[in-house]
Structures are given as structure tokens and as C-alpha cells.
Design a protein that fits this description.
Helix content: 40-55%
Distance between the termini: 51 Å
CATH class of the largest domain: Alpha Beta
Number of helices: 21
Largest sheet: 8 strands, parallel, barrel
CATH topology of the largest domain: TIM Barrel
CATH architecture of the largest domain: Alpha-Beta Barrel
Structural class: alpha/beta
Strand content: 5-15%
Order of helices and strands: EHHEHHEHEHEHEHEHEHHHHHHHHHHHH
Shape: globular
Number of domains: 3
Number of strands: 8
Amino acid sequence: MGEIKFVDTTVRDGNQSIWGATGLNNGMILAAAADMDNVGFKCIDFASSIHMGVSVRTHKENPWERIRLAAQVIKKTPLSFGTTGRRFIGFKRVPDSVMSLVMERVAANGIRRVWIVDANHDVDLMLKVARMAKLVGIEDYIVALSFTISPVHTDEYYAQKARELAQSKDVDTLYIKDQGGLLTPERVRTLVPAIKAVIGEKPLEIHSHCSTGLGPICYLEAIRLGVDVVHTAVPPVANATSLPSAENILENLSYLNYGANMEEAAIKTMPSWLWGKDKYWGNLDKTSLQAMTAHFQQVSQSEGLPQGQPVEHQASYYIHQVPGGMMTTLRRQLTEMNKLDRLDEVLEEITRVRQELGYPIMVTPFSQFVGTQATMNVFSAERYKVVPTEIIQYASEWFGKPTAPIEPNILDKIVNHPMAKNIVDKEFAQPSIDELRQKMGLGASISDEEFLLRYTMTDKEVDAMLAEQRSNV
């Protein structure tokens, strides 16, 4: 009870949710790095494989250099990297040798905290990656309990997963990851105590988006129930489909003990998140926080990028459950196809596909899998006539066992698809890095960092990035 700590998500999830992950280049981030380091965040959610891919494709910048340069300036505040534990940059599953090398290189370049989200909550996978991270010196390994609403994702389900994860010495922290903004104060009141009861002294953090407008209220309720770390962003990449504003949560903390001098009966006439007599505060440097906000506001204005605003409550999010970053991307892609008028149709089909596939959680990569299949269903003459490779791999349990069974008639369509013959019942290969390098024809002069880019991206994309880097020297 007392001090509430903040994880800043501005350059990672805020950028992804409001600006489609493409809004920030290295210079824009580095210009704010000193102020970010001085705010007093518990850590800075800095990068994920999606953002590393965007650095190469969109900005022609070396993503490893972005981490290195930022770590040279941001020395007091740990930088964080996010992974699914099965993939890097692209959506294809990668062998363990590649994931182990990713952990080694992010740590070598200055990452001190790693978070993992697996949409199936595969405990064995998350603990395997935890061991990889700890072996290369990662200080804080944090596991996401990815929230969704379905008949199988109950409080008991999350408590059991939390119990299993918390028993590992390699897991330092757990967090509730509400990527779809689906939490309500009512669900927080049951979910947070259920998880807190089984994780012992390990910290519990909360990460919720504002897609339904309830994120800030859910944070206050979670704080009252014992969560002492919140994930926020600064304007202009807070609110909307992004996370709550750091300034807003910081200001509201002072009102959580509003009833300190009131009788119990009077306190309970107020909203539950104002109950109690405990005083809360956040030790953030407001001058540095304001400077950081001003910088990203200036970037927004100079680049013509949208600014996140508080949204009206939309009940539809509880049905389709599309997360913030994906909603932005989906709108952009349909606009490029001149099909934005069919967005509601695609969202309705997403709901149907998710149910048919056993209620996968709408988080990377499953949200993209479901969204792609739904879009193909809408624009094809027959549902499931076109089936992406990733959906076949999902049905073949390459990404873990689905939490609920796939509907039998849909499973038949997937496994009997012409594309499925080379995937179904095929064991996933686990080659070494040397074997992969040999297969790709890469000599010893290619660094491990360049190898990881070439393994997960096209040579054309990597060559274009390297050529741009050489031209700027």
C-alpha cells in the first residue's frame, strides 16, 4: 500500500495503438530519452519484434541500434522488450535456438526486462523462455495473464495459471494484460483478489487499454485491491485504443483516500474505488513528465499524426474483442483496399471465427490470425475457402493446444484444405543457429543481429535498410 509505480508504454504500445507502430523513428525517441529517464518510471516498455520490423521496413533504421543508443542515454530506468516466445518479427513460429539468440542479443544491447505473452497461457513455454532470459542476465522477467471474456477464461482459469507461473524462481513479476480494454470494475473486483491470493509476494501489475473508456476506472479499482504498478502512456498516444494517461492516473491517486476522515457508511456511498483510508501517491518528476509529453505532442503536430482522445463507451468491443493496435491497423488496411465501409462486417465475422476456433485470446499473434481469416471469409465467395498457413498451424497446435476445442466442422475444413498436407501432423523442426546459417548461405561475417533480421524478413528489406544506413554515414 502507498507508492504506485508506473511503467511507461509511450514508444511501444502507445505508438502501436495510436500510430500503427510506424509513428516514431530513432531520432524522435532519442530526443526524448533523457526526459523519459528522469521521470521515475519503474521501466520503459521500449520494443517488441513488431516495432523492430517496422524500424527496418518503414524507417530503414537498424532496430538493434535503436536499443543500443537508447540504453546509452536511459541508464536509470530499465528498458523492456516484449515477446510471444514463439516468434520474432514475422508471424511464423521460430525454433528455440532463434528465440534463445534473440534473448541474448536484446540483453547485450541494453534490455534489462523482458515480458512474455502467450495467448494459450502455455506455462511450459513461458518458463522455457524465462530460463533463456535469466541465463543472459535479464533482471526482471514478467509474464502476462492475457485477459479475455469467454466461457473458459474464468477467474479460476487465471488463478490456476498464475499459481503455476509464480512457483518458478525465474518469474519475477506477473501482470494482467487487458489488450482489448475489456475489463470492468466488477470483473477487477473478482479477478485481482483471485490472482493475488496465489502469487505470494510477487508483484502484480495491470495493463489495460481505454477502448471501452473504462481503463482509468479499472486502474483505480485495481490499486485499491493491491495492484501497485500501472502501465500508462503520455499524450498524444494515451487514451482512445491506447492506455490510460500517466498524468490522469497520477492526479487521481490523491483522491483514493478521499474518505480518510469519513465514517464507513458515508464512504460506501461513493464509488468503490474511492473507498478506504489508505493514501496513495506516485513519485514521478512532473517537470520531466511534462517535457516528455510536450515532445511527443510536437512530434504529433509536425508529422500530422493523430492524437488519442478519451472515447465514449462502446459495448461492441466486448463482442469482437479486437485490441487497440490491431483496430488501428485493420482500419488502415481496409482503407487502403477502399473497403472501410465493410469494417462492421469484418468485425462481425471476427466474432464468429473466434468462437469457431475455440475462443483464442485476441492478442498477437492470434488476433492477427483471426482477423486475417475473418477478412478472407468476408471477401471470398465461401467461408474458409482460403485458409492462411498460420490458421492451419494453429489448428495443428504449433502454437500450443487451444484453450477450447475448435468446432469439428471448421476443423475439418482447415485440416482438409489443400495447403494443410505439409503442415498437419508434421513435427516442428528445431535446427541450430549454425544449421540455419548454413541453409541460408550466410557466412561468419554476418553478425548474429543481421542473421536474425534476415531469418525473419526478406533480403530485400534488410538490404534496403543497410544501404540507407551506409548512405547516412
